[in-house]
Amino acid sequence: MNTVKIAIIGVGDISGIYLKNITSMFKEINVIGVCDLVKEKAQKAMETYNIPKLYEDMHEAFQDSEVDIILNLTRPYEHYYVTKAALEAGKHVYSEKPLAATFEEGKELVALAEEKGLMLGGAPDTFLGAGIQTCRKLIDDGFIGTPVGAAAFMICRGHESWHPDPAFYYKHGGGPMMDMGPYYITSLVNLLGGVSGVTGISKASFDKRTITSQPLNGTVVDVEVPTYVTGIMNFDNGAIGTIFTTFDVHYDTQARFEIYGSEGTLIIPDPNTFGGPIKLLRPEDGGYKEMPLMFDYADNSRALGLADMAKALQTGRAYRANYKLTQHVLEILTSFDKSSEQGKYISLETKYERDIPMKNNPLKGILD
Question: Is-contact 18 303, C-beta < 8 A?
C-alpha cells in the first residue's frame, strides 16, 4: 500500500497520541521523521515509534524530498512561522489548532497556500469522530426540527495545576478561547454552518498565575491574554449561539454543550473527544434519550483529520479539516476579543459552507 509520508515538527505533549494513532491506527500515512528544539524528545519518539529520521532543524525536514505533509505540533504562537516556512518550501501542512495566533497571520497563510496550490489543514479533527458526526446527522435528518440556537460552555481553573509546562496558555496565542474554543466553534459550524458576525466581552480575572505542577512548581506566570471570554454568534441560518470559556473558575464537571431546535434539544458530547454520549429531548418522549453512535472513530482518534487530508492528496477529492474551516474558526475566535475591545458587533470577512459528512468504511484506518 502506498502511504503519504509525514514529518512532525514539535514533539511535545500532544505528539504522543498523534504518533500512536499514525503508527497503529491509520494505514495510509507514515511518519518518516521528527524534529524538536529539545533533541532528546525527538530521539525518544524515534526509538519509541521506530521512526527512521531525526532532523536537526525544521528546514531540513522541509527540504526532504520524501516528505509529503508537514505535521505542525509546535506551540500556538509558533504555528504561523513554522507553517509559513513549510509552505514556502513547497510542503503541504497540517497544523494543530489554532491555524495562527491572529486572524491576520491566518489570512497570510491561506493566501500563501492558495498561491502555491498547496493543502493547508488543521486541528481540531474531533468533529470528524463518531459523536459530532452523529449529531450532525440527527440535526440534518430533522430530529430537533429547525435549529434556533446553541450554547457552549468550557469552564475550568486553568492548566497550571497539571500541565508540565503551562506558561504558554497565558501568553500570545493562548487563553481559553484560543486553546479550547476551537473544539467548540469547529463543532458548531459543522453542525449549524457558518457565522456572519459576533459580539464578545472578555477580561483577565487575574494578572498572574502560579504553577503548582512539576517540574515548574512555584513559577509565577504573567497573564497576557483574556482568560474569561463570552461570545454571541449570529449563524448564517438564523440561529444564535452563545459560547463561554474561562480559565478562572473552579468547576468539576463537563459544562453543557447544547443545540436547540423547533422540535427538540440535542445534548452534544464534549467536543474535545471523538465519542458520546449524545442525548436527545423531544417533548413527546417526556425526557432525554441517549442516542446510539452511527459513525466510526469514537475513541481518541487524533490524526483523523491528517489521514483524511492524506487520502485527499492521493485521490484528488476534497478534505474536511481544510483551511476554509480553520480560517473561519480563527476569525470567530479572535473577533470576540476584537468586539470586546471596540465595544461593537463584528461582521466577519470569511464565509463557511459545511463540507461533506464522514462516510463509514469497513476497514478502520482507511478513509473514503
Answer: yes
| Number of neighbouring beta carbons within 10 Å of residue 184 | 26
All domains in the chain, ordered by first residue:
4-122 (3.40.50.720), 127-291 (3.30.360.10)
Residue type (1 letter), 111: A
Judge if pTM exceeds 0.90.
yes
**Cα–Cα distance, 169 to 273 (Å, whole number):** 20
Q: How many CB atoms lie within 10 A of CB 149?
A: 17
Cell numbers linked to 37: 528544539
Q: What grid cell was written down for 87?
A: 509552505
- 3-state percent helix, strand, coil for the chain, nearest multiple of 5: 35, 25, 45
Helices (H), 25-66: 39-49, 58-62
Mean pLDDT for the chain? 97
Answer for the pair 128, 321: CB distance below 8 angstroms, yes or no: yes
User: Is the alpha carbon torsion for 359, 362, 365, 367 positive or negative?
Assistant: negative
**Rg of the chain taking only CA atoms, in angstroms:** 20
Task: For residues 230 and 82, give the distance between their C-alpha atoms in angstroms, rounded to a whole number.
Answer: 30
* Residue-wise pLDDT tens digits, 231-261: 999 999 999 999 999 999 999 888 899 999 9
- What cell was used for 320? 474536511
**pLDDT one-digit tens code per residue, 349-359:** 999 999 999 99
d(CA 31, CA 43): 14
